[in-house]
Amino acid sequence: MRCFLGENAIVNRAGTVFGLYVLGQSLERLGVHYLTYGTTEGDRSAKPPIWILTVMEFSRTISLLTDVSRFVILAFTAAIVLPPALSAQTAKELIGEACYNELRHRETKTLWSYTAERHADNHISLERVIESVDGPVRHLLAVDGHPPTAAQIKEEDDRHQELLKSPAGRRALQKQRDDDDKTMEELLRIIPEAFVFEDQGKEGESERIAFHPNPGFKPKTYEQRIVHALDGMVFIDLHDKRIARLSGSLGSRVEFGYGLIGHVDQGGTTEFMRVRLSPQVWKTSAEKIDLDGRFVMLKTINKHQDESRTGFEPVAPDTTFAQALDEIGNK
Fold it and tell me: What is the pTM of this model?
């Protein structure tokens, strides 16, 4: 990946090289004249005195050096004053590197526990979540600021016990998570080609890049068609080259099977925010999805989802569903 210095840095380097070239040529001429004149007694009598020629050459060298210095100073000033800007190609390359890093680090499985605040059906739920190799275990802490009722506690316990006694149920959860991971990986691979990117400058430690559907890209799946219809903004962390934030809205209605299989209405929005937990380890800290339409085939996509996550703590990488339940019971 190239360093994003911009055209001004190239001008700066060109000015420096040009200055060194002119100075070298002037010194070379000075040395040649010094060796040519005054070599013999006859030459010294026929040519001007050496000190006059030396002063003349030195004066020309100083003049050239002054001009070059002005050129270099102007180049440096331009590099400082003019804001560096990423070209469209460079913005695409930065997106490509970030997507590559996301794919590479998804292969490293890490488990975490956190507190989740979920907004759904006009209620706010607070949950303790512990990730396991079999899927996340959720424990209800409060609803609308109040402790869960006895009925809510029983419902949660029954659900946990059913999963604990049902390997098939846990495998179904694992399969759904694996399918979602596979879909996400496929989307990450197409992003650099699915959109046209425009750099919007820096914001904090991130680069802001606007994205719009690339008319030349042909999506192959239902999920790709929805993602390809998004217009929005993505923030790339410049230190780790990772996606720190993404927001987008559907600029057009997306139909499947001419609308008979399903559709997603224009104007739907999606937003994700991520947080750096340790070197090259990033987790989603907030996600909000508001999509309206008819969903027949897209079983893993929620119409309305609003969740924020805080208090991340690492969990042993081999934690099972039963161990996560025990951990929740001990809290």
Answer: 0.69
